[in-house]
UniProtKB/TrEMBL annotation:
The chain crosses the membrane at residues 7-27, 39-57, 94-116, 131-150, 162-182, 194-216, 237-262, 268-287, 294-319. The keyword Transmembrane helix applies. It comes from Arachidicoccus ginsenosidivorans. Keywords: Membrane, Transmembrane, Transmembrane helix. The lineage of its organism: Bacteria, Pseudomonadati, Bacteroidota, Chitinophagia, Chitinophagales. The keyword Transmembrane applies. This is Prenyltransferase. It comes from the Bacteria.
Length: 320
């Protein structure tokens, strides 16, 4: 029972959804705005589950129903035995997932329509930069898989090699840093204005999540190598990726965090709590020289996003 529940939460992408909520709440509190309405978080949760489940299930019918031509879903790694546990889970549950995907898609559409009609009264009076921020993140997310699942699209950002983790990091950072505050401002009929704090938080989340994505590329080494996808670990090897890329990036991020927060006169208790995720990130990155099971990546590496969100929320509530 515990095994089935664990697989359901992590393979079903519910843990990703939890991470997006935690990081979004962190961003709201750190930028001094109230939390969003339940409809916003419902859209965020269902949108995250639908996006990642579609990605793992393989080819997608244009109307949102999985292609059943082959009788079974095609995942991105069916040829790699390292992914068998997740692949088998999707194979065993593909009918159920197809139904839940359809339901979650309807819920996401309903939540989005509710926000537009009931909450965002001035949405058609947005400034150009607001439209840009609103549309850029989902467009980049859409083109990340591109012609993998939509043959009529010629762009596939997933094949961008060493840029791939930074593309994923940008999508996550935009969704959990800009959107929570921007959507709240729209709910109270105000325009979203970029601030020093919002730019800092965007860059911090972008780099933090990009580092996690580089760690995930270590898991995908064999598959990326066979596909001639030049990720960091394929280009320079495991040891250099850890000691010449991951650890220096994390150290720079930690130093920048301490410097910025001290310069902004954050309380030292808040600074200390916010450094904990970076210290944990250093520890996990150093341990990456040994091969790990897939659930390690989903629980521990992705868990660092949840840890960051929890620490940020705690620091904001305890120290303002």
């Amino acid at each position: 029972m515990r095994k089935k529940l664990t697989e359901f939460i992590f393979f079903g992408n519910y843990f990703y959804a939890l991470c997006t909520v935690a990081l979004s709440m962190e961003a709201s509190l750190q930028q001094g705005v109230p939390l969003n309405t339940p409809a916003y978080y419902l859209l965020l949760i269902t949108g995250t589950i639908v996006y990642y489940s579609y990605a793992y299930m393989g080819e997608l019918h244009l109307f949102g129903i999985f292609s059943s031509i082959t009788g079974k879903p095609r995942t991105a790694a069916t040829t790699n035995s390292y992914y068998n546990r997740r692949t088998h889970w999707y194979t065993r549950n593909y009918k159920t997932i197809t139904i839940t995907q359809f339901v979650y898609t309807l819920i996401a559409i309903g939540a989005a329509l509710y926000l537009v009609i009931k909450e965002f009264h001035e949405i058609f009076s947005l400034h150009g930069d607001e439209w840009l921020m609103l549309l850029l993140v989902p467009l980049v997310a859409f083109f990340y898989y591109g012609n993998d699942y939509f043959p009529f699209i010629k762009i596939n950002l997933r094949n961008s090699g060493w840029l791939k983790p930074f593309i994923i990091g940008f999508v996550w950072a935009g969704a959990v840093t800009i959107y929570p505050v921007m959507f709240y401002k729209w709910q109270i009929n105000l325009h979203y204005e970029i601030s020093v704090m919002s730019v800092w938080l965007l860059i911090k989340n972008w780099m933090y999540i990009s580092v996690l994505c580089i760690m995930f590329d270590i898991k995908d080494y064999a598959d990326d190598y066979n596909r001639h996808l030049k990720t960091f670990v394929v280009r320079v090897g495991l040891r250099k990726t850890i000691f010449s890329i991951l650890l220096p990036l994390i150290a720079i991020g930690l130093i920048a965090l301490i410097g910025f927060t001290a310069g902004q006169h954050f309380k030292w208790g808040s600074i200390l709590i916010n450094t904990l995720p970076f210290i944990a990130l250093l520890s996990v990155a150093y341990s990456m020289h040994k091969r790990k099971p897939i659930l390690f990546y989903l629980m521990v590496i992705d868990g660092l996003m949840l840890l960051k969100g929890i620490c940020g929320i705690a620091a904001a509530l305890l120290f303002g």
